[in-house]
Recover the amino acids of this structure.
């Protein structure tokens, strides 16, 4: 596979960085979305996941364009960035406190740009079925998930364990909507191994390793202070780096 795990998908996404720090009232926002705009990311997804599934079927993904993105058996899939820096309006005070730990604003901007570029490599991306109120939307809108990948994966783990109560699995209805997709992987281990998520879970696959120590599914589980925010970023970067190495192993034909 011709896959460069260091490739930054913001670089082929229609001037992503233009006026970046003037947007979102200074919190920063790209002019385009690499999950939609980067042709390299779309190609990498279609290459990486086009292989045999745990249930014995072959995921014969094909690149398409526009809303179709990539398809298989008339099913549509979209890309989702699984890493977030919480540069949201409701986290403004936290982000401003993070900014204050740097010598000046320019140093903060350079640091955050480096974080964004590292997380917009293939190790920071995954695919889900694409439709209205798909996982991509639900995990960002749910106030007990707030786009956190570790909590999203915990919901997926609980689905495979048969935990369907929304109080104990806030994404249960979203996952059930695409049960056909999750059934392709047979069980949680099958899902984790297929998408190279082993560094998010315990060795026996029985637990998800949370990136920060919040209670599962409390409301608005954002980092509570600068130290926890920086720990969140460090753990996300560590996960992306390790996942990129696993993906590189597949691309180069090495044992994982």
């Amino acid at each position: 596979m011709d896959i460069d795990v260091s490739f930054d998908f913001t670089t082929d996404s229609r001037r992503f960085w233009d006026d970046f720090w003037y947007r979102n009232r200074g919190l920063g926002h790209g002019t385009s979305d690499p999950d939609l705009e980067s042709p390299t990311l779309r190609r990498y997804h279609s290459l990486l996941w086009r292989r045999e599934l745990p249930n014995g079927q072959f995921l014969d993904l094909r690149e398409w364009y526009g809303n179709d993105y990539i398809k298989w058996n008339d099913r549509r899939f979209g890309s989702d960035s699984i890493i977030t820096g919480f540069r949201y309006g409701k986290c403004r005070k936290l982000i401003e406190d993070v900014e204050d730990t740097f010598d000046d604003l320019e140093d903060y901007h350079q640091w955050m740009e480096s974080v964004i570029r590292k997380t917009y490599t293939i190790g920071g991306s995954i695919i889900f079925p694409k439709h209205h109120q798909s996982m991509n939307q639900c995990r960002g809108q749910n106030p007990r998930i707030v786009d956190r990948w570790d909590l999203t994966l915990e919901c997926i783990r609980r689905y495979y364990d048969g935990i369907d109560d929304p109080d104990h699995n806030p994404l249960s209805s979203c996952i059930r909507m695409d049960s056909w997709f999750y059934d392709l992987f047979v069980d949680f281990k099958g899902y984790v191994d297929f998408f190279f998520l082993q560094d998010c879970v315990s060795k026996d696959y029985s637990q998800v390793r949370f990136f920060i120590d919040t209670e599962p599914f409390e409301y608005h589980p954002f980092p509570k202070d600068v130290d926890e925010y920086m720990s969140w970023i460090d753990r996300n970067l560590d996960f992306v780096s390790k996942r990129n190495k696993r993906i590189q192993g597949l691309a180069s034909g090495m044992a994982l």
Q: What stands out?
A: The chain is about 40% helix and 5% strand. Residues 226-251 form the longest helix (26 residues). The mean pLDDT is 95.
